[in-house]
Amino acid sequence: MDDRLFRTAMGKFATGVTVITTKVGEAVHGMTANAFMSVSLNPKLVLISIGEKANMNRLIKESGTFAVSVLNERQQDMSAYFAGQIKEERKILFDTFNDMPVIPDALVNLTCDVHQSIIAGDHTLYIGEVTDLRVQDGEPLGFFEGKYKKVI
Ligand code: FAD
């Protein structure tokens, strides 16, 4: 089994797309992630998986807190930007929700305190206890086989 086959197999699992945000002092940082899942209802826990080399990994370790914004179908550009695929530096207007920076117009914004972190191979799994959330209607941005897809 080589790396390419593993990536191809994992890419067959269709997901939505999120932008993870955190802040250290007044410095805000965002990163695109599709490794996001719900873990527990009581207490309310979610999980994200962050590559060891990502700036976000160091920053969440430092802040102990993160937010998740579930992108809508019109936010593909936002996903590409926060994945580092658009090289120009942009001025992003974040919303503030529960004292955390979040992406405006996302289907969901939720804020978390880190409940547990687990180093797993070349990623760290952050389990977050949800401290607040808000939801709005709209269609999701989908991701399948390494490409953005309309879900409906
Ligand atoms: P950086 O490369 O440091 O930042 C990303 C970009 O956002 C840069 O252009 C930076 O300038 C900009 N930026 C960040 N904060 C701000 C700000 N406040 N104002 C303006 N610009 C800002 N990686 C994972 O580890 N886990 C995943 O689950 C995952 N899922 C992915 C899903 C998709 C669909 C894609 C396309 C990529 C995914 N990645 C994932 C890869 C990950 O998004 C990139 O590797 C990312 O660049 C690494 O994060 P970083 O913290 O080092 O970000």
User: What distance lies between the first and last C-alpha atoms, to the nearest angstrom?
Assistant: 33 Å
**Beta-strand content estimate:** over 45%
Q: Order of strands side by side in the largest beta sheet?
A: 3-2-6-9-10-5-4
Beta strands, count: 12
- How many separate helices? 3
Structural class by secondary-structure content: alpha+beta
Level of helix content?
A: 10-25%
Series of secondary-structure elements, N-terminal to C-terminal: HEEEEEHEHEEEEEE
Rg on CA atoms, Å: 15 Å
In the predicted model, the low-confidence regions spanning at least 5 consecutive residues are none
Please, what is the average pLDDT? 97
Molecules bound to protein: flavin-adenine dinucleotide
Shape: globular
Question: Quick one: biggest sheet?
Answer: 7 strands, antiparallel
Explained architecture:
The protein has 152 residues and is an alpha+beta fold. Helix content is 16%, strand content 49%. The longest helix is centred in the first third of the chain and has 9 residues. The protein is globular and about 40 Å long. The N and C termini lie far apart (33 Å). The site of flavin-adenine dinucleotide has 24 residues, from β3, β5, α2 and α3.
Task: Describe the SSE topology.
Blueprint: H1 3-11, E1 15-16, E2 18-24, E3 27-33, E4 36-40, E5 45-51, H2 55-63, E6 65-70, H3 76-82, E7 95-97, E8 100-102, E9 108-120, E10 123-135, E11 141-144, E12 147-150
Antiparallel strand pairs: 1-11, 2-3, 2-6, 4-5, 5-10, 6-9, 7-8, 9-10, 11-12
This protein binds flavin-adenine dinucleotide.
